[in-house]
Amino acid sequence: MSSSHPTQASPGRWADWFARFRRRREAVPAPPDPAERERIAAQERAKIFRDLHDDIGVKLLALLHTVNDVRQADLVRSVIYDLRDIVSRSRRPPGTLLEVLAQIRDEMEQRLEALGVQLAWQQIATPDVPVTSFSALNLFRIMREAVTNAIRHGRAREIRVHIACENAMLMFAIANDGGGPLRASATGTGTLGMRERAVALGGTLQWTEEPAGGVKVALLVPLSSLESATAGGMG
């Protein structure tokens, strides 16, 4: 019984089998080099970001204009800000600390004005050091969640922000005059995310009760970390 298997074939068929095998291998395209893989991945990410903006972003904006409750509207607005961070802020070139703080203040003013909440902003001797895009993104997300907690749990009428630098450390504190319990403000999924982001920046977060009522959350982070922190160090 004849067989075409190469181990039982004549020398001529052996050569023919190896020639076909070699042609198949040569027909397989070589894998792209690392730079080409990164270019392709960047194109795919850009497409996903555009889809997020064009689809989900538009739907969220439509929802924002149909919500009657101001606190529900603020929740939608906060999600829109988070989406904007994902789509654009994480891809922006690095900026400076003063630029980031000015943008945070502008966002807070917009949110709180819509809620009828006063903002008292105090910024003392803040150096204009470079800040990585990763650091800026985490500062935004920490402060945004702190404001959300003050509104949701504290029913604040005023939010006070105090920013200062001492011994190469940035201190960013947000306090409210609401009556929400400390436990509600310092626990939950949102605050767990805040802690993780603070750790990613090489910093710490602390919640304390204000003497006159309300809760204060304070972020303490080395300025050097803001200049060097990247997503690779988040773990």
TrEMBL record:
Residues 138-224 form the Histidine kinase/HSP90-like ATPase domain. It comes from the Bacteria. Pfam families: HATPase_c (PF02518). Its EC number is 2.7.13.3. GO terms for biological process: phosphorelay signal transduction system. It catalyses: ATP + protein L-histidine = ADP + protein N-phospho-L-histidine. The keyword Transferase applies. GO terms for molecular function: protein histidine kinase activity. This is histidine kinase. It comes from Sinimarinibacterium flocculans.
